[in-house]
Design brief:
The protein is an alpha+beta fold. 53% of the residues lie in helices and 14% in strands.
């Protein structure tokens, strides 16, 4: 048994170097000290990690490719489990990726964030832009990607699934929008 340098209690103590001095700390005092150092250096550590990742992009790409090939079953199982646990989050991420990739392949370019998409839905009062029903909304490109439209938020409107499928890649005029009927 030794005496803790911080609280003075006679407990089993651990030697820890701090400011070039070795001191004795009991387990609760050592944990508190470590926690304080962790919180104090949090921002500097994050900045260093981000800088390191940017400087070593190839290393991380190679590492994750190798990890995926060695553990593809585990990665797929984890992905399935996460999609079941948070379908609204993973569905949105997947949709965003698909739209962005498709726009890139078709040469349309552009992108938008989840916050911008939420703003579009809020601006439309969470109802379909054509039939005005409050069904689950999907993203629709006003000028479709196939016809040269972009994936920017100013080319996105919220439609229900049936209206989106019915509209397809058609560019609607004002008259067609006014005469839109629910089938």
């Amino acid at each position: 048994m030794e005496i803790c340098d911080k609280c003075g209690a006679e407990k089993l103590a651990v030697r820890k170097g701090y400011n070039d001095k070795l001191r004795l700390y009991c387990k609760p005092c050592k944990n508190a000290l470590d926690r304080n150092l962790y919180v104090k250096n949090c921002e500097a550590r994050k900045a260093y990690q981000n800088k390191f990742r940017v400087e070593h992009v190839e290393y991380y790409q190679d590492y994750f490719k190798q990890y995926y090939t060695e553990n593809s079953d585990t990665v797929k199982d984890n992905s399935k489990r996460n999609r079941k646990l948070k379908p609204e989050l993973y569905g949105e991420i997947s949709n965003r990726y698909v739209h962005k990739r498709r726009a890139k392949l078709l040469g349309g370019g552009g992108s938008h964030t989840l916050e911008e998409w939420e703003t579009v839905k809020q601006r439309q009062n969470y109802v379909c832009a054509l039939c005005k029903r409050g069904l689950p909304l999907t993203k629709d490109h006003i000028v479709s990607l196939a016809k040269g439209g972009s994936n920017n938020i100013d080319n996105i409107q919220a439609l229900c699934k049936s209206c989106n499928c019915r509209k397809s890649s058609t560019i609607l005029t004002e008259e067609q929008i006014q005469n839109w009927r629910i089938i």
